[in-house]
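Minutes, methods subgroup
Present: GH (chair), OT, SY

1. OT presented the first of two proteins processed in the latest run. Sequence and structure tokens recorded below as shown on screen.
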Amino acid sequence: MEVLKVIILGIIQGITEWLPVSSTGHMLLFDELMPLHQSAEFVSVFMVVVQLGSVLAVVVLFFRKLWPFGKERSETRRTLTLWGKVLIASIPAGATGLLFDDIIDSRLSVWPVIAAALALYGIAYIILEKCVRIRTRINSVDGLAVRGSLIMGAFQMLALIPGTSRSGSTILGGMITGVSRPAAAEFSFFMALPVMAGASLLRLVKSGFGFTAGEWGLLFLGALVAFLVSLAVIKGLMSYVRSHDFSVFGIYRILLAAVVVVYFGFIR
């Protein structure tokens, strides 16, 4: 059963990390319904480290765009500039997560916070897509200025609250500043690399790497499943955003928030 739960969690991570629906929120809710029978420390680390599989999927799919070496000088400069903007965008979430990681983990990873974040961002998506007209000025990540990347980074910082969605928050921030959905989604993927890798390393260091062989196996399995699922989901999302808006995800978030409130508030 533990192996099956890890596989399911890997699937949930691989799907929801890139969709604007909150991967952490979904995984925490699943763990409430079907908890892993492991130590609390291991579960806390697993929920973060499994994201490494999703990060690796971004590296594989966008390797040519992210790897700066072996290119013409102009292409190398463009890639290094892109990395510079990604690192700048990662500062707000990285600094905040480093300072408040324990508080976020102990105080905010609860169902009322998750439900509120799901509903509020769901409403924000619907309003943005159906009621607000924003002129798109930037259609590629190369056209994103440092100021715009920092704004998206500030929105990524908000996603430290469980239930918010890192990809959803950053894409929302990009769209508000005039970035097209495909460009905002792509840059959001790149922004995930330093933040998620850093968060995983931080959790592993805090744990002292003191896991059994079986626990390391579960970590690897979850990350592997998340990697394989993420490969398909990222491709699908990039195709979807070229011709669809995010209002359907807003509706989904609101409905899921209602389910969370009913279950945890009245049934459990």
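2. SY then presented the second protein from the same run.
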Amino acid sequence: MNPTIYKIAPRDLWREAEEKGVFEGAPVDHADGFIHFSTAEQARETAAKHFKGQDDLLLVAIDADALGEKLVYEPSRGGALFPHLYAALPLSAVRWIKPLPLNDDGGHDFPEMEQ
């Protein structure tokens, strides 16, 4: 599968994770019982569907291989396989963090992403 996966997170929530040393998920993750991620191919659609118009977001690149067997790719939107983590995210797995600014259309301008 894809060695880099992505999490879109509000800046404040991510800063809390940095203080704790671990990301335990957003409210939607807690409700579903796992942390939602997207592949590079899925991230733009995820942002458009779940984060349209939201400002002050971060795009967090994660080393999928560092998450081990707790990372599972499961069918979701349209049957596509999405990465789900059934554990807290150790910050040691983070490759980079970049801002995800809003553009004039209410969508987000993405940085270059690793496949």
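Chair's summary of item 2: The two ends are 10 Å apart (CA to CA).
Next meeting: continue with the remaining queue.
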